[in-house]
Amino acid sequence: MSKLVIVGTVAFDAIETPFGKTDKILGGAATFIGLAASQFNTDAALVSVVGGDFPQSYLDMLKGKDLNIEGVEVVPDGKTFFWSGKYHHDMNSRDTLVTELNTLADFDPVVPADYRDARVVMLGNLHPNIQLGVIEQMEQKPELIVLDTMNFWMDNSWDELLNVIKKIDVITINDEEARQLTGEYSLVTAAKKIREMGPKYVVIKKGEHGALLFDESEIFYAPALPLEEVFDPTGAGDTFAGGFSGYLSQVENINFETMKQAIIYGSCLASFCVEKFGTRRMEDLSKAEVHQRLMQFKQLTQFEIEID
Amino acid sequence: MSKLVIVGTVAFDAIETPFGKTDKILGGAATFIGLAASQFNTDAALVSVVGGDFPQSYLDMLKGKDLNIEGVEVVPDGKTFFWSGKYHHDMNSRDTLVTELNTLADFDPVVPADYRDARVVMLGNLHPNIQLGVIEQMEQKPELIVLDTMNFWMDNSWDELLNVIKKIDVITINDEEARQLTGEYSLVTAAKKIREMGPKYVVIKKGEHGALLFDESEIFYAPALPLEEVFDPTGAGDTFAGGFSGYLSQVENINFETMKQAIIYGSCLASFCVEKFGTRRMEDLSKAEVHQRLMQFKQLTQFEIEID
Fold this sequence. Notes:
2 copies of one chain form a homodimer. Chain A is of the alpha/beta class. Chain A has one domain (about 5-300): UDP-N-acetylmuramoyl-L-alanine:D-glutamate ligase. Chain A has 11 helices and 14 strands. Chain A has helices at about 30-35, 55-65, 130-135, 150-155, 160-165, 175-180, 185-195, 235-250, 255-275, 280-285, 285-300, and strands spanning about 5, 10-15, 20, 25, 45-50, 70-75, 80-85, 95-100, 120-125, 145-150, 170-175, 200-205, 210-215, 220. In chain A, the strands form 2 sheets. Chain A has a 9-stranded mixed beta sheet with strand order 6-5-1-9-10-11-12-13-14, with helices on both faces. In chain A, strands 2, 3, 4, 7 and 8 form a 5-stranded mixed beta sheet that branches. Chain A is globular. Chain A starts with a strand and ends in a 7-residue tail after the last helix. The interface between A and B is large, with 40 and 40 residues.
């Protein structure tokens, strides 16, 4: 079984949407990525940090999904990273209410020895220097390094971000961030410029409008499933990244064709994530449900046209 | 050959985009719809009105595309409808600078006698009472009536709009307008509510994010082609509607499957429309170019996934 290294936050989230409000619940990029990746036939390890306040039951749940958590450091007298946010009515924008870095402030990731030869590395949204630190711990160049990032690092750690972008194969980024990173409005031109910064493949996430995959010469467009109700968008982007990297870590050949499939899997899993608060839906997701929704994605996008 | 009736404006446009500025050039919903429909094997007639200031060369160009223009009334001492607009930098929004209704103010459409048994009627964006007047002139119920409209009529002629919406088969509308028409944010819920108003099929246009087709139970999503440069968006929605209705007027069976194809054709033609100012690109468009771009749409969206 291929190995997959996932680095990112394991956290507490408190979320408010027009539909309701949670206390501190399980969240974090690595959590969502890991839960999505656990849908695939891959040997995945989380690399993260939590405080002594982090419930053992959450760790047990992740272990129960066959995720290796050796690399999740527990700092007994530290507190777990905490984020709180409130979504606006349209669910496309949100305000951050609280960010407490806590143990994340001094996070020094350690990739477990058994995973330093992993085939795929998924760098969840974090300080670019931490992402770089993980790459440097790999004993051999992974076949695929995927990086997720966000505007915060463009605003605050530009040089460090460019430095890690040089060393990766795929970047996943949203449309506004792609525009900010390149100064280009057209996503086609933006993707071209991002490719010049390093990655061979660029994935641009457009939320409810789907996602685009670019390589040197081709473009693929995966829609998001049109939903009657988005209950809580938290973690949808991470779930997408987890589906994407999880699927690719199990395929025979990693190339544009399998990346198209990986994007469909990522979109499919993200469409579940938003159905309930936090990780709830992803914790209970069955393979049968995933397969049924993949059929919906096919119906949604596939057509026959005879071109004479 | 099936007959197609197209009603809408034939107009002068003056357009300003970040790329440049035009004097009065050929525009109007019926013009763009007609040019798109002329790509198909259909016998299409335009129903519209112009003033004595409208150049014969424009009428000749439309005739040269095998469009019947008997129903385009020329009011010798009247002036042609004139619209002028300026696009913002992102090309997704625009300001209207001038609207001169001129002969359009008293437009009383007359469907040519030979076309009152048309198979398909395409009602371009106009006052809902004019759209209704065209439906009432048809001697037998057309197999398909498609209606395009916009927020202006929701703001100003709500009852009349609802009245015509009752009598049609397909509505094409953009996402914001669908939300305004129903008070629903979710496009899935909005489409459901619009179907309850009359049309069996709802097409929601999302500009650069593509288009959605809904019937009672299915959804289809066609992307827009990601473009490096949008030169002038004027007429893209009408071109989409023209490709959609033009294609359907030539197919053997009009159903959800052929409507999916029609949406791809509409999106494909719209992707050409925006490449040059006004109607320029559509006037010179060859079948070979269209077929090549259809192949691009296939590559953009089609994938193989084995679902075990």
